[in-house]
Write a structure and sequence with these properties.
The structure is a single chain. This protein is α+β, with helices and mostly antiparallel strands. The protein is 33% helix and 18% strand. A hairpin with a 5-residue loop joins strand 1 and strand 2. Helix 10 packs antiparallel against helix 12. The radius of gyration is 22 Å and the shape is globular. This is Glutamine synthetase family protein. Keywords: Ligase, Magnesium. Its cofactor is Mg(2+).
Length: 452
């Protein structure tokens, strides 16, 4: 087993230094982004090159039901082969014993990647960039709420109590006092992240009551998606230690801002190492404008991936820190596509559409796919927007059903993401949406029961 341990990333080695590894959690992301897999003794993991799980884990809805997403062979739960990517080995520092987590990739019986495994979808899109001589770079921003324990779904979600004993206050964006209210939770987040070898670029208080944002340093899209996948679990575990919940719902609390996963993009020419969004004199290139056009032209049809639940669409509300359209502008946070202030080498495009409830692999893959299509199609974006984009008209789907309709017709996106993925994703999300339509909400009972 020692040879295997020697191959671990440095952070995992440091975590285990002087200690005996007890267990390895073999994990893979399903469509919602839930970690599936199995835990095995370290001694067994050291002797095993792979393990099996049925491919039906990708047909499972967020409620635990299974969609009928069978292929032409009919409903057959085929075994997948899951192989570890040892570069992802990292600590699980909240466990009682010494445990590592390792992300696995899914293959079929012929050794081909399972096309609807989210990590494989992202790898497919990144490879399309590489085939063109480009290296995509991303930097995700993660927003989330710390809320009081909610044990009854019939009860409204409420902000957590801070150190002062008072509920977290709203409209305190960037307040250091507000950050200090969550100090014990944040301390554990930092400690867990350090143990896992993750570099946090900063933590800030956002506009919602108990809402925080974590920024991650830019880098390889698959590596950053792995980190967001890990971070969601890390943050939840840190919150539970302090008698509260961390939620990544897009809109958990009425009249509060929603939580986004803003994605910053740049693209490097592999041969020269230069940012293709900037020219030799530092000016904006055709590729820069083509990438923006790709987002404008294709994000509406891909919104069902970035806003994957009915709750996701409650976030797109005027004047609540979420975009309602795909206008673009420089340093303007009211637009769906923002160009942050930067020098030519760091020129990037920020997609502000994605919700924090999306699967990080799929959200990043979808955003990159739209930009890739823009680079290939070489179209120009609409004129830069001036002013407050909330004053303009919305041009993104407003409900899940409409978004799914558009996604199912988006053949260009299907070809980039993978037709098999698009088929399975659409079937699973349609099943979730139809299940939601069976539920009668409190609003309907309150306003319709005796009035219509």
């Amino acid at each position: 087993m020692s040879a295997w341990l020697d191959a671990l990333p440095d952070a995992a080695k440091s975590y285990l230094e002087g200690r005996r590894l007890d267990e390895v959690e073999c994990v893979i992301s399903d469509l919602p982004g839930i970690a599936r897999g199995k835990a095995v003794p370290a001694s067994k993991f050291a002797k095993t090159d792979f393990f099996h799980l049925p491919d039906s884990i990708f047909y499972q809805t967020i409620t635990g039901d299974w969609a009928d997403a069978a292929d032409d062979d009919g409903w057959i739960e085929k075994d997948m082969t899951l192989k570890p990517d040892m570069s992802t080995a990292t600590a699980a520092p909240w466990t009682a014993d010494w445990t590592l987590q390792v992300i696995h990739d899914a293959y079929d019986r012929d050794g081909d990647p399972i096309p609807y495994s989210p990590r494989n979808v992202l790898k497919r899109v990144v490879q399309l960039y590489h085939d063109k001589g480009w290296k995509p770079i991303v930097a995700p921003e993660m927003e989330f709420f710390l809320v009081s324990r909610n044990l009854d779904p019939a009860h409204e979600i409420k902000p957590m109590m801070g150190r002062s004993g008072r509920p977290a206050a709203a409209r305190q964006a960037y307040s250091m006092t507000a950050v200090d209210e969550f100090g014990p939770v944040i301390d554990d987040i930092y400690d867990f992240a350090e143990a896992q070898g993750f570099e946090i670029d900063g933590i800030t208080q956002e506009g919602g009551a108990g809402q925080l944002e974590i920024n991650l340093r830019h880098g390889n899209p698959v590596k950053l998606a792995d980190e967001v996948f890990y971070f969601k679990r890390l943050i939840r575990e840190a919150a539970l230690r302090h008698d509260c919940f961390a939620t990544f719902m897009a809109k958990p609390i009425e009249d509060e801002p929603g939580s986004a996963m803003h994605i910053h993009h740049s693209v490097i020419d592999i041969e020269t190492g230069e940012n293709i969004f900037s020219g030799p004199q530092g000016g904006e290139t055709d590729a820069f404008f083509h990438f923006i056009a790709g987002l404008q032209n294709h994000l509406p049809a891909g919104l069902a991936v970035m806003a994957p639940y009915v709750n996701s669409y409650r976030r797109y509300v005027k004047d609540h820190a979420a975009p309602i359209n795909l206008e673009w502008a420089r340093d303007n946070r009211t637009t769906g596509i923002r160009i942050p202030l930067s020098g030519p080498e760091a020129r990037r495009v920020e997609n502000r559409i994605a919700g924090m409830d999306c699967n990080p692999y799929l959200g990043i893959a979808l955003s990159l796919a739209c930009g890739y299509l823009g680079l290939i199609e070489e179209q120009r974006p609409r004129k830069q927007f001036k002013g407050n984009a909330y004053d303009g008209d919305g041009d993104i789907p407003q409900v899940m059903g409409e978004a799914l309709d558009m996604f199912e017709e988006a053949t260009a996106l299907h070809e980039v993401l993978g037709p098999d993925f698009a088929r399975v994703y659409s079937i699973v999300k349609r099943a979730e949406y139809e299940e939601f339509l069976q539920v009668i909400s409190p609003w309907e009972r309150e306003h319709l029961l005796m009035n219509v």
